[in-house]
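To the team - S-adenosylmethionine complex, inputs and output below.
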Amino acid sequence: MSLRHSTRWSATAIADLLAWPLGDLIFRAQAVHRAHFLPNTVQLSTLASIKTGACPEDCAYCPQSVRFHTHVEPDKLMPVADVRALARRARAAGATRFCMGAAWRAPTDANLERVIERIKAVQTEGLETCVTLGMLSRRQAGRLAESGLDYYNHNLDTSPEYYARIITTRSYTDRLTTLANVADAGIKVCCGGILGMGETLADRAELLHQLATLDPQPASVPINNLIRVPGTPLADAEPVDPFDFVRTIAAARITMPEAYVRLSAGREEMRDETQALCFLAGANSIFYGETLLTTDNPSHQADVNLLHRLGMEPEAQYRVAPAANAESGDEPVNE
Ligand code: SAM
Ligand code: DTB
Ligand code: SF4
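Output:
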């Protein structure tokens, strides 16, 4: 077997991969994974919703849209001190990246500056930073790059063909434009999608094709299993066969060899065995912490136990937290 990869994966070739016998697909994905990453190491990212709900968009999966009646209580921008406290807790629990989400169609310039204050607070705690704020202009992406932001998350979510069934208030092209603005500004792109929205295998192949042909390929690829939130139009969607979920992870690993492939939303409903298969298929990142944005995620302890049972370990924290803890009166953390 060759370990050479093409970045010119056609959707048809990816659809073929998704139909391979599971064992063959995992074997290939493992080979690719081991050529690029430590095989038993998982990167831990912690999420925080810094502005919750009341979003004007109509994404059919999302509990934060103002159009659906869900469990979500809207909340205004989280104060800097609260963000910093969450980041500190995330780092203490072993996370290396802190991702902040805001339920906006697009940030205003004034809101972007307020988010930048929060990015700086998280940097002070020695974590990598990621934000997901909706659509960005080139200028706004430039501002975020100046702040030292590491990653911007903006998902393609599904295939271009299926997209209009899920979202009508912004186009696929809008998404690609934001991704180009982010990449051109020099920020690493975090971009993935959701399985379980009624899409076909061909749609999944097309989503992976879109992701794998981004230039450069995304540095981080979250693969979400739809959380079927009551009140959203997709509340009763048919669940994905866990083996098909694993196949999609393997195909993401094979087609995007250098990306962190994140086993993202939906782990709370996933058996440990399925998660283990996802790691075997090349997933090497998870969301870590008991909430995602507005929904539940496994506890820190559950994930520490799972990784331990699998003989896997969290990716090491690499940044030394600066001695900028004067406001809190705490001793600086030096590791
Ligand atoms: N408002 C911003 C945007 O849409 O770009 C950022 C936040 S949005 C919640 C980030 C991503 O979360 C979505 O693109 C989608 O992929 C994922 N997501 C939202 N609700 C989900 C759900 N119920 N299940 C799985 N993934 C979900
Ligand atoms: C991503 O791909 N998944 C995360 C993150 N990027 C922002 C969000 C998942 C949200 C799940 C539903 C919720 O908690 O509201
Ligand atoms: Fe708004 Fe983002 Fe949810 Fe869409 S996914 S409704 S843009 S918060």
